[in-house]
Specification:
Length: 318
């Protein structure tokens, strides 16, 4: 009996001995368990990466099919607009041609009208009349351009609606394929009480791997997720460009009418009055300088906007 009790006490003592003693797992057993666990983790990680690679490839194929389908829809919208634009241009050109002919008649009548004023007085009088006539002709051209611009913006909006529809289809497919969610890393669990250094390194690599996967998927889907915002910004740019173009044309139009007037008077200048010819030459040169300054101003504006837009596009991911 005393021997039995002694044996039991010895077994209990062995159960509480530290690792490496007869009652604990041997180093070999731990190595085998860790090796098996590592193989399982590697297989799971490889399987996950392969599934995501397959999903990405399937999404790209789906996106290409949609792109082909919607490209044809967009082409049809463009064709409709081109036909409409031809119709608008024809009507506008007819109106503008008639207005230009009327403008030339009025200018010719004003230039040949009898009067006792000297050249400077006639120029001052005709300059005011020319400004009114030129402004009216310009308004007609701008109205025609505005009508076409509105049609163009409506077409852009229609096309962008189609593209937004395509974006959503791609995003739904990506979600179904599991490309829009974060994936859990395949982490090592402690075997034998703690992680080994290789297991810690594995966990670090896994966390980085899933973060890289998430970033890569987000980047691939950004053009679809941010497409509507980017296209809205592009339409705003189209509106701004139209306003800028016609602001420049408006300023140049007034100068052009003045230069035309001064040129017409140059042809009528009295050779016996060289001072008049010199005055006209000076005024033509001044108008030319103003024209260059206007072009420089708007060129600077456009270049500045181009730089700003480039940076904005970069931030929007376009």
């Amino acid at each position: 009996m005393s021997k039995t009790i002694g044996a039991l006490l010895m077994l209990c003592a062995l159960a509480w001995l530290p690792a490496g003693t007869a009652g604990a797992q041997t180093d070999k057993e731990l190595r085998e368990q860790r090796s098996a666990a590592q193989k399982e983790r590697a297989a799971l990680s490889k399987q996950r990466n392969q599934e995501l690679a397959d999903a990405s490839r399937e999404l790209r194929e789906h996106a290409r099919e949609l792109d082909t389908e919607y490209r044809e829809k967009l082409r049809q919208i463009d064709v409709e607009f081109e036909l409409r634009r031809v119709e608008l241009e024809s009507a506008h050109k007819t109106k503008v041609a008639a207005a230009e002919a009327e403008f030339q008649k009025k200018l010719s009548a004003a230039m040949t009208a009898p009067g006792d004023e000297d050249m400077q007085q006639r120029i001052a009088k005709l300059e005011a009349e020319m400004k009114v006539m030129s402004a009216e002709l310009f308004r007609l051209k701008e109205d025609a351009a505005s009508t076409e611009h509105k049609e163009r913006m409506a077409v852009a909006a229609r096309k962008h609606e189609q593209l937004a529809e395509m974006d959503q289809a791609v995003l739904r497919k990506a979600e179904a394929l599991g490309l829009t969610r974060e994936h859990a890393p395949v982490l090592a669990s402690p075997i034998g009480g703690e992680l080994t250094r290789p297991e810690e390194q594995w966990n670090e690599r896994e966390r980085k791997e899933v973060a890289t996967i998430a970033a890569r998927n987000a980047k691939a889907l950004a053009k679809y997720a941010d497409g509507a915002k980017l296209r809205e910004w592009e339409r705003a740019n189209m509106e701004e460009d139209f306003r800028l173009d016609w602001e420049e044309k408006r300023e140049l139009n007034e100068l052009a009418s003045r230069r035309m007037l001064f040129g017409a008077f140059m042809l009528q200048a009295d050779p016996s009055r060289p001072a008049d010819a010199q005055s006209l030459t000076d005024r033509i040169a001044e108008a030319g300088l103003e024209e260059k300054q206007i072009k420089i101003k708007f060129d600077q504006l456009r270049k500045t906007k181009a730089i700003e837009r480039r940076e904005t596009r970069r931030k929007l991911g376009g």
